[in-house]
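Researcher: First entry.
Model:
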Amino acid sequence: MSKVIISCAITGSVHTPTMSPHLPVTPDEIAAQAIEAAEAGASVLHLHARDPHNGKPTPDPEVFMRFLPRIKEATDAVVNITTGGGQGMSLEDRIAAAERASPELCSLNMGSMNFGMYPMLARYQEFKHDWERPYLEGSRDWIFRNTFGDIENIVERLGKGHGTRFEFECYDISHLYTLAHFLDRKLVTPPLFVQSIFGILGGQGADTENLLHAKRLADKLFGDDYRWSVMASGKYQMPFITMGAINGSNVRVGLEDSLYARRGKLATSNAEQVRLIRSILEPLSLEVATPDEARKILDLKGADNVTF
């Protein structure tokens, strides 16, 4: 087995500020937590931005540029910028920061889907900000759009236009077939970085059989042409990524995916989750990849070729 790449998704666009005082919101907080996560052993940092005044997800490249250069200056971690964005953002919104920053790596969701966040409403009686409740409720009727045309657009503009490679986010088995379609058309090139995602309402459930099936199917579709990673939401985060690692995957942690360190205990930082998964991997003789090793594994263009 090659070394395990730990990705860390720092803030995301799912959780809201009410849910945890440790969720990074401002550029200062995002930069500080990203740097700390890299120091703890994350070689890839997956980044969204938030309005520093109220914590609402924002696609504004100016906000991204308030933390991206600081992260690059302080770490050698691979920066992975979202193209998923958040609820209510257009495709142009979603890729604006990536086009500005020309990163080594971007996320790319491989299909349109329902993306239900509204069950979290039942856990909170009051919210800090007026936007939080309608944002979560709005996911009841939200379709996370990623059409074939959208995917082609992103691949053309960021892949061909900037030499950016992709973390292909696969929330369902059908997304693996969609990725195989783009590989057959030679619009994407190996090695493919395939992120299998479990436990999102609207996507594949966090079931062991689903994890093993995803691995078998990816092996069938991509052979040696892909690098696998596993991410799971909420309470499934650590058990599922541990199972993934045992079965040959890379792993993703971070407050985007789960706010907890263990049952009933909020994680105080992204770095705490990175340290926790390292404490699981290393006794299993699974060595953690450095950023430069991750670049080699994923065939990235290098940090000298970004524009931040």
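Researcher: Second entry.
Model:
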Amino acid sequence: MGLFDRISRVVKANLNDMVSKAEDPEKMLEQSLLEMQEDLVQLRQSVAQAIAAQRRTEQQYNQAQNEANKWQRNAQLALQKGDENLARQALERKKTYAETANALRGSLEQQTSQIDTLKRNLIALESKISEAKTKKDMLKARITAAKAQEQLQGAVGRMGTSSAMAAFERMEEKVMLQEARAQSAAELATDNLESQFAALEAGSDVDDELAALKAQMSLPGGSPQQASLPPSEQSSPKSEPVDAELEQLKKQLDQL
């Protein structure tokens, strides 16, 4: 590939890109519809001109046909009068007008066919323009909706990166953190309360056991177990350390 071909291709590509970016769908729709309407006006003018030409040709055909008929009658009249030479001249005139009439009739038929084609094209173009107008309104509505959607998406995208949105998210995180702290404190308070009740229940068990022990030992007041001991053991010097230990145990139990 030559250098000039490459340069030409690059220039064309850049120009096409510039044109594509510069195209506004709404404006292009309006321009396209305007061009179609201009074509419709030109086609109507062409149909009108063709009809006018057809009418002129039809008039010329009728005149030539009338002249041919007139010279036909003149030839008959000359023969009736016995003037054969004049009749021959009349027939020559008739022949000329008849040939002209035949030529005009062929041209008239062609014009009629062309006019029929132009009329069909005119009707088709009018239908296309009517359809294009309807589509234009629909496309403009779709373009408006697409622009609104694009603007909305852009706003949402900007919200994701804006400082206001970031601050809002930080405040939301702080609220969630504070809620978590409050919930943790409530759970700790509940656990503490439950532990206190558990301690009370444990203390109650100890008190019950202590009361049972006191009942077994008949403490305080009276000592049936001591009374049941042999006299020798009550007064024995060996029982003094035991008694002292027993008194110490009593004091400890009383302090509980």
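Model: Note on the second entry: The radius of gyration is 63 Å.
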